[in-house]
Amino acid sequence: MRTILNTYAEASRLCWAQEESGNRGAWLFIREQVEQHLGIRDIEYIGREKSASPATGSHKRHLQEQRAILTALFNRTAAADRPVKKLAKRNVATKQ
Q1: pLDDT-flagged residues of the chain (< 70)
Q2: What is the CATH number of the domain that holds 77?
């Protein structure tokens, strides 16, 4: 993994994006592995807030959240100006 990351030496951020909520999917595992094996602690999480439910129950809200995740992931400018951004969590993981 370090070899792959080294090919992106000019990258300004390292992030993990997933459609699942923060307490589901691979986020917690990936964060721990990257911190432990690579010593990288400032990994940005882009995805849905933690939730007991695997789905919002609303197709419209699902699409809003999905759009917010993609906007936060691919838009380097301040995505916070868009109201839909509030639906996706953007968190920099730091373990202290």
Answers
A1: 76-96
A2: 3.40.50.11610
